[in-house]
Specification:
alpha/beta; Rossmann fold; 12 helices; 13 strands; 21% strand
Length: 370
């Protein structure tokens, strides 16, 4: 799957102050980030956060209202043979339903002078050999995803942009694409993946770019993101729990009983510090386990004061003081210190929140845009 000559240093995606307006609605707001080669970068955010619009701007399917974005040093439209530079999966089912999988790939290949043997190679590679002559309209969602991935890989591109690539795949297919993405990144390619599945991104991505309402929230490694959310929390079990608790008592340290069998939850000390303190007092320890947040839990605990511009008020009386993105089925919820929402604001009504999956009226500033 590796192209001859490898991949150059300019193989990356660069967005600078990228902005997109649809009428009076701002879908992408002054977004700046760089997607580096050699790692899988996850593109995360709640529904409606601007992920799909950003990808469309990268691929030149929409024109930016401001700012700029390039792929491998050029605008997508300026690449003379774009399939050799960028492989993309946006909507796997946007294929002529009357064509077979083989003919769909062959039609794409012929636009770039790609030989038939590459089509055959990819059909086998993505596991569609037995249905290569079957009409795409009869494909399951998972089969359609595999065809979309084959289309993205057709030109052996240096950069891959995949929007929800595991949708419809069974566990075996998810495992396959996870390993595929890692291997492609290991070859030096730029791999940019949008997904709602936090558990899968935790296993696949090394870097994440998170946006909310079209604005950058964070651009950080998965390991650092989780570390910041985890803090110093350690579970320690001892037959002399009361004595250990007394030994650990210090400013900035919190110790609480986690169960009635000698398990303590300690906040503010590392596992090594707890172990050293126990040794000094001659206290036996039967368990010493640092606690680490999952990627999903990290979303639920880390505050983001840059998610939205600060506001002194709105038509509904909400003030955004300390914004936090919390995924509830990966819809954004803004927790803040609000004043009481007004019944006159349609975006603040319980019915609106119930129908859209938003958790509480504290989301008002994000919902109504004020």
């Amino acid at each position: 799957m590796v192209r001859d000559g490898g991949y150059g240093e300019g193989v990356l995606i660069e967005a600078r102050n990228l902005t997109k307006d649809y009428g009076d609605k701002r879908a992408v707001d002054d977004l700046t980030f760089t997607v580096q080669p050699g790692v899988v970068t996850g593109f995360l955010g709640p529904n409606g956060s601007g992920k799909s619009t950003t990808i469309r701007l990268i691929l030149g399917l929409d024109r930016a209202s401001g700012g700029d974005v390039t792929v491998n040093g050029k605008h997508y439209r300026d690449h003379p043979a774009p399939l050799h530079e960028v492989g993309a999966l946006l909507e796997a089912r946007s294929v002529h339903s009357g064509r077979s999988a083989a003919n769909h790939l062959l039609a794409l290949a012929q636009t770039h002078g790609i030989p038939r043997r590459r089509v055959d190679e990819l059909i086998d590679f993505v596991g569609l050999h037995d249905v290569a002559r079957k009409r795409v309209g009869q494909f399951s969602l998972g089969m359609g995803q595999r065809l979309g991935i084959a289309s993205a890989l057709l030109g052996d591109p240096a950069t891959l942009i995949l929007d929800e690539p595991v949708n419809g795949l069974d566990p075996e297919g998810i495992h396959w694409i996870r390993n595929l993405l890692k291997s492609l990144a290991a070859e030096g390619r730029t791999v940019f993946v949008s997904s709602h599945l936090m558990s899968e991104m935790a296993l696949t991505a090394e870097q994440i770019i998170v946006i909310g309402r079209g604005r950058l929230i964070t651009d950080i490694s998965v390991a650092e993101f989780v570390r910041q959310a985890s803090g110093k929390v350690v579970h320690v079990r001892s037959p002399r729990a009361a004595e250990l608790r007394a030994a650990l008592d210090a400013p900035g340290v919190t110790v609480r009983e986690a169960d009635d069998r000698g398990l303590l939850e300690v906040t503010g000390l590392s596992a090594s510090e707890i172990g050293d303190a126990a040794i000094e007092q001659g206290i036996a320890i039967h368990e010493l386990t640092p606690q680490q947040a999952s990627l999903e839990e990290a979303f639920m605990t880390i505050p983001y004061t840059t998610a939205l511009p600060q506001s002194t008020g709105s038509r509904c009386g909400t003030a955004v003081m300390d914004a936090r993105i919390i995924p509830v089925e990966y819809s954004a919820v803004i927790t803040s210190t609000p004043r009481t929402p007004s019944a006159s604001c349609a975006s603040c009504t319980p019915a609106r929140f119930g129908s859209s999956g938003w958790k509480s009226a504290r989301s008002c500033a994000l919902m109504c845009g004020q």
